[in-house]
Amino acid sequence: MCVLAMLALLAQAACATNKPTNPQDPFETTNRRISDFNDKVDENVLRPVAVGYKNNVPEFVQKGVNNFFGNLRDIWSTLNNGLQAKPMETAETGLRVAVNSVFGIYGLFDVATMVGIQRHTADFGQTLGYWGVSPGPYVVLPLLGPSTVRDTAGFAVDNRYDLWRTEVDSVGLRYGGSALRLVDKRAGFVGMDKSMNEVALDKYAFMRDAYLQRRKAATQRKSGNQDSDGDDGDDGIRNDQ
Length: 241
Description:
Blueprint: H1 2-15, H2 28-56, H3 59-83, H4 87-102, H5 111-114, H6 124-130, E1 138-141, E2 145-148, H7 149-160, H8 163-167, H9 171-187, H10 192-199, H11 203-220
Antiparallel strand pairs: 1-2
């Protein structure tokens, strides 16, 4: 996936000939083509699988899957909150991991939320932005969706240190779990995507602007801000690391 991301950036740089409608999107022509490709993959493959998963898998199983991978993500968020010098968020997210791992049976149950311990999601792209790294141009990555040059670099680090990929030895289990995580993530947006298609005159522009605004807010969020779980870095097909 990281190789695909780098190739996409090179292709977009080579094809940036038309004047963009948004100064943050100099590769708009190429980005729109990749976005159309991603939409077709989603429409024909990912969404049908996600709908089947949502409609046929018991809700408590879906919740357990979502909680488990959310707990793994909280470990990485704890580290990134620390790198962003946010002591409250680091402590609270770390406490979530401890509570859910012990009392929630490795995160299958979200006990932390039940007792009022908030989640503070953070990734390495957000960490780079917090310390002043410019987002660079907006890009759409094949199969991954909206990003920026900075967030693409951040995603490469997120992906490299993803605990599921680094700690699970069985190749079958590793890839099977990654596929399940992707389907579970997509299932969470079933219904919302239809509403967005109905209200957005230009879906591409809507997704781009929403992504850029949310990422900007995430990198500027100060320690102690109660808007703790407003960004997970994921749009479209791209999942959480």
